[in-house]
Amino acid sequence: MDRIGDAVRSELGRFGTAAPMADLVALWPQVVGEAVAANAWPARLSRDGTLLVNTSSSAWAFELGHLESEIRSRLGEHAPPRIKFAPGPLPEPALTASEGTQEPPPQPTPEQAEQARDWAAGIGSEELRKTVEKAARASLARAAADRSFW
Q1: Do 20 and 78 lie in a common domain?
Q2: CB within 10 Å: which end of the chain, N or C, has fewer?
Q3: Overall number of domains in the chain
C-alpha cells in the first residue's frame, strides 16, 4: 500500500499544489476525528496554499472556522498557512463491514408457506398467484423473525 501512495504522490507532484493534498487527505480523519471528518473534508489547495475544506452545512463551516488554528497545529508539518471552511460536496461515506454484508432473508416455516398458498389460492392468473404467494411467504417469515422488543 505504501508503494502506491508514493506513486500517487509522485504523480500528483506534477500538478503543483496537488501533491500536499494526498498527505492532508490521509491525515484528515486522524487529526479531526470521525465526526468532523464525516461533516468536513479537504477539497483543494488554492494557489496561495490555503486549504479549502467543504462542510456539510454553514453551521459546520462556522464552528470549524473557530478551530482553524487548532486544526492547523494538529496537522503539524503538513499544515497549510490557512484553512477556509465553506459548505460544499463531501465524499460518499465508505460502507462499514456491517453495512456491506446483509443477512439472508428469513425462510418461511412450512405452516407459513401453507398459509401463503391459501391466501393466494383464489387468484385466477397463475403468474399473479405465484407472485402473491411468494410475497406472502416472505412477509410472514420476516414478520415472525422481527419480533424485536422496544
Answers
A1: yes
A2: C
A3: 2
Distance CA 37, CA 30 (A): 9
> Helix or strand or coil: residue 54?
strand
Q: Are residues 40 and 71 in the same domain?
A: yes
Residue 43 grid coordinates: 477539497
End-to-end alpha-carbon separation of the chain, Å? 45
Q: Are 56 and 80 in contact (CB under 8 A)?
A: no
Q: What is the distance between the alpha carbons of residues 39 and 56, in angstroms, rounded to a whole number?
A: 5
Q: Identify the pLDDT of residue 35.
A: 92
- What are the DSSP E strand ranges found in the chain? 40-45, 51-55, 83-87
The parent domain of residue 120 ranges over 110-145
Same domain, yes or no, for 85 and 116? no
Lowest mean pLDDT among 57-71, 81-95, 97-111: 97-111
Dist. CA 76–CA 69, nearest whole Å: 11
The pLDDT of residue 22 is: 86
> Which residue has cell 492532508?
24
Cα 113 to Cα 77: distance, rounded to the nearest angstrom: 65
Integer Cα distance of 81 and 96 in angstroms: 34
Is residue 128 within 8 A of residue 134, CB to CB? The reply is: no
